[in-house]
Design brief:
Blueprint (H helix, E strand, L loop, with lengths): L1 H29 L5 H23 L5 H15 L2 H13 L3 H29 L1
Helix pairs in contact: 1-2, 1-3, 2-3, 2-5, 4-5
Length: about 130
C-alpha cells in the first residue's frame, strides 16, 4: 500500500509540474486573457488518459502499477478541473460570458474527442 501511494504521489508530482510549465508556456505564447493554457492541458490530459485506459482496461497491456502512476498520479496532477472552474469564474466576474461559454464548450467537446482519439490510436496500434 505504501508503495502504491508513493507511485501515485510521484506521478502527481510530475503531472503537476508538467501542467504548470506547459500551461505557463502556452498562456505566455497566446498573450491573451482567454485561459488557453488550462484548456490545452485538460485536452492533452484527456488524450493521455484515453491511451492509458485503452492500454490497461481494453488491451490489458499496462500493468496496474503503471496505470496508477499515469492515470491517477500523472493525469490527476496534470489535468485540473479546479483551475478550469476558477478560470470560468474569473471570465464571468469580468463580464466575459461568451468567453466562458466558449471555453466550457471547447474544453468539454475537445476533451472527449481527444479521450476517444487516444483509445482509437491504441486500438489501431495493438
Amino acid at each position: 500500500m505504501i508503495y502504491q501511494l508513493f507511485i501515485i504521489g510521484l506521478g502527481g508530482f510530475l503531472g503537476s509540474i508538467s501542467r504548470y510549465m506547459l500551461s505557463k508556456v502556452i498562456q505566455e505564447q497566446a498573450n491573451s486573457s482567454f485561459p488557453w493554457g488550462t484548456m490545452a492541458v485538460n485536452i492533452i490530459g484527456s488524450f493521455i488518459i484515453g491511451i492509458i485506459f485503452a492500454l490497461s482496461v481494453k488491451n490489458n497491456i499496462l500493468p496496474p502499477v503503471w496505470r496508477n502512476f499515469l492515470a491517477i498520479g500523472f493525469c490527476g496532477g496534470f489535468t485540473t478541473f479546479s483551475s478550469f472552474s476558477l478560470d470560468n469564474y474569473q471570465l464571468l466576474a469580468n463580464n466575459q460570458l461568451m468567453f466562458s461559454l466558449l471555453y466550457t464548450l471547447i474544453s468539454v467537446i475537445l476533451g472527449f474527442i481527444f479521450l476517444y482519439s487516444g483509445i482509437l490510436i491504441v486500438r489501431v496500434l495493438t
